[in-house]
Amino acid sequence: MTGGVFAIRNIRLFIAFRVFFNNRFYYPVFTILFVDYGLTVEQFSLLNTIWALTVVAAEVPSGALADALGRRHLVILAAALTIFELALMAFAPVGNGSLLFALFLVSRVLSGLADAASSGADEAIAYDSLAAAGLADEWPKALSAQMRLTSLFFVVTSVSGAMLYDPTAMNKLCAYFGFVPHLTQSDTMRFPMYAALVLAIINLPVVLAFEERAQPNRGGFRRQLRRGFANVIAAARWIAVTRLAMAIILIGTLYDHILRLTATMTSQYFRVCGLPESRFGLVNAAVSVMGLFAPKLAELLVGRYRPDINWLIAAAIGLTGLLLLASFQLWLGIVAVLLTFMGMMLTSFFTSHYLNAITDSDIRATVLSFKGMVFNLGYGLAGILFALAMRAGHETSADGATGFVTAVRFFPWYFLVLLAVVLPLCWRWARGWRGR
Question: Residue 328: CB partners within 8 Å, gap ≥ 6?
Fold first, then answer.
């Protein structure tokens, strides 16, 4: 990747930051890791909801601060918060349920603040660097490269993360090098957390190397804060009167919240399907390999088809994945997970491309933060609905299905109803799509 967009330092740093920030070694065993620490699936869902609500609360203020005080400062803050977040989980003691939940709660709040601080700020630095070089039209190429490299690295973290978690695999690896430690699950369940913490520490010098292209206005901290929150009002007004922006954010939220909820539940899903835990990493690696092609597909789609056609393609892929997921058949479930991840990637790509293309630089980070806030509000509400559906499934199931199975089988019908309600409204708002 030399020359063109990749000759710009901030683009290379943006890609590196996203790769390190978004890849966590514990993702292949995300749900069951929390359970093995001593939490319940319902507590896991509640913690994810709290994480999402934290992002919702902090998203727009952080975007305003990024536009006013400088995007680089917010990205550095995100990297630092991630280190503290992962350290809390990596070294949390087990045995005391109340203390454990409290530590994980603080960790998820820090994680939400980190996501809010980085959301919009890193993308705004990168996009404005392209615009300054006269290469704004090349943003899909940079975004595609970032997503593909993230997926490639995810192959490594998925396979190694699942292996780090598995005591049998770790004991065999240690024996190969002449050690016989007799590791148990209570030992190895922390190993993916340790690895994720190391990666977060490595990411800190990456963000420190960012260069701020669009310098914030000077004139004192209070003046900058006033400017930042004036940007919030300006961005909110702009979104309110720009129906195309509202349509992009609303459709993106509709797709993202249900597909992302599905993605966070994959380890529990495959445990229900009977897949050995040592193979979770292979499934996640397959998802990552698919992720090498999905961003390139998205890049080709935005160059060839109108936005309305592309949103319909993403909807069809996501809905097919949710329908196959409801079968709880192992091989169909693997295909379903691949499709839901593809739908999520297309949604992320389309939303970023179309929203950046119509947003002014002065309010870019704030507008992107509004988008992130709405996305995470939808995800948080989906987590609450999922927990309620699980409880209702436990109470009403007469065929032996667990609450988890009942809740997952509800997903495609929930998505279909929302599509029927939201898409016609957004099509009226965004008639200009047909000319793009």
Answer: 269, 272, 273, 405, 408
Do 361 and 214 form a contact (C-beta atoms < 8 A)?
yes
Tokens describing residue 404: 């988890």
Among residues 356, 350, 385, the alpha carbon closest in space to that of 368 is found at 356
DSSP for 25-45?
A: TTGGGHHHHHHHHT--HHHHH
Instruction: List pLDDT tens digits, range 72-94.
Output: 888 999 999 999 999 998 898 88
| Nearest to 316, CA basis, from 295, 342, 288 | 342
Q: Average pLDDT in the 381-403 region?
A: 68
Structure tokens given for 144: 């595609």
User: Mean pLDDT, the chain, as a whole number?
Assistant: 82
In 3D space, the residue among 267, 248, 237 whose CA is nearest the CA of residue 371 turns out to be 248
Could you report the per-residue pLDDT of 214-235, keeping only the tens digit for each? 555 555 556 766 766 777 788 8
Mean pLDDT, rounded, for 299-320: 89
Q: How far apart are CA 202 and CA 245, in angstroms?
A: 36
Q: How far apart are CA 380 and CA 393, in angstroms?
A: 20
Could you give the angle at which helices 364-396 and 121-132 cross, rounded to 10 degrees?
A: 140
- Domain spanning 4-435: which CATH class is it, in words? mainly alpha
What does the pLDDT look like over 337-376, one tens digit per residue? 889 989 998 998 899 888 888 888 777 777 887 888 888 7
What gap in Å lies between CA 245 and CA 31, rounded to an integer?
Answer: 34
Structure tokens at 337: 């997970």
